[in-house]
Amino acid sequence: MAISEKMLGFSTRSSWIRKMFEEGAKLKIQYGADQVFDFSLGNPDVPPPPQFNDVLLELAKNTTPGQHSYMPNGGLPWVREAIAARMSAEQGVAIHHGDLLMACGAAGAINVVMKALLDPGDEVVMLAPYFVEYGFYVDNHGGVARVVQTDADFNLDLGAIEAALTEKTKAVIINSPNNPTGQVYPAAAIRALGALLEEVGNRFGSTIYLISDEPYRKIVFDDCQVPPIFHLVRNSIVLSSFSKDLSLPGERIGYVAVHPEADDKGPLLDAMTLATRILGFVNAPAFMQRVVAELQEVSIDTSVYARRRDLFCSILSDIGYRFLPPKGAFYIFPQTPIEDDARFCALLQEERILAVPGRGFGSPGHMRLAFCIDEGYIARSAPGFKAAFDRAQR
Ligand code: PLP
């Protein structure tokens, strides 16, 4: 076969979410879509805010030549200015538009950063449970992913992170609010991580960047605050997208910023700009850049996710599931009542409930439930969650 063996191997490794997707499709045909409780996909179902459509329609009227042309690889300067202004307030550090690039979603941004940082064999530390694509993105650019477990509360385990750092470590990537746990790292933990990376980098004579992947920053509950990374860590890179907070995942629009005082900021930004071009993105979608520039202070109605979280938490805890209530994003990551998470997800499937086994995120013994689905489904899934829980106890 002509297909790359590496890719064939990857398709096996990435099979959990795909498997759930396929199983879900089968169940939906068999029982009808409204009889299947699909918590497997983090695909936002909350509509974009009304301002999105207003801006979209208004900008579509602009027929000035050049609206859809190629542009500087980093994106339209005035769009970057709008993002830099909002980020400056959010991150507690003055950011110039030249410190950031527009990207094809957070995923595109991570690839641009990895391309800019990694030589073959360089290492990136990622924390389990992790966003499954990180490993692939690191590999795309010849890097090696080093997985470090978080602690029992899914918080940073600095000792374990330190033990994983080597002279080849280029970066540690964190994601908060987290997919799949919904947890948010406190400021003190991030500050301590930054200090650790600085100290170890000095020992090795290298720079270890903290990469913060934060597409869920605006989706938080109970007044939870997501700490500003730039304010806490100098050698940091912050990237995000509008996939979740404006519900635009299909539009592939995001950005990445380098701390204004980071080591080698200029060459890093130049390399990221070149990476945007040579990875074939060329630039982030022009029309969407113009749209999001107008929507920097707008986000989806997060109270919808908050209500779902409350309902889901109360159903699961009444049954006896053990979990940390999410502080943000739209996922819950409960322990499975039996150690074999895949087996437990199969029991749930018999109740027409789709969940993703924690092993798919590097944390077996758990399952991820995404609440990108109407509250009614969550309410109606309660008997199924109870039945599978009871069967697992036998
Ligand atoms: N990072 C995390 C933690 C995610 O959960 C996702 C998407 O689910 C991404 C990055 C990719 O986001 P985007 O669609 O903006 O590329």
TrEMBL record:
Keywords, ordered alphabetically: Aminotransferase, Transferase
Keyword Transferase belongs to the record: yes
EC number assigned by the record: 2.6.1.-
A molecular-function term among this protein's GO annotations: transaminase activity
Cofactor: pyridoxal 5'-phosphate
Entry protein name: Aminotransferase
Alphabetical list of Pfam families matching this protein: Aminotran_1_2
Aminotransferase class I/classII large domain: residues covered: 36-377
NCBIfam families, A to Z: PRK06836.1
Keyword Transferase: yes
Source domain of life: Bacteria
Family label: Belongs to the class-I pyridoxal-phosphate-dependent aminotransferase family.
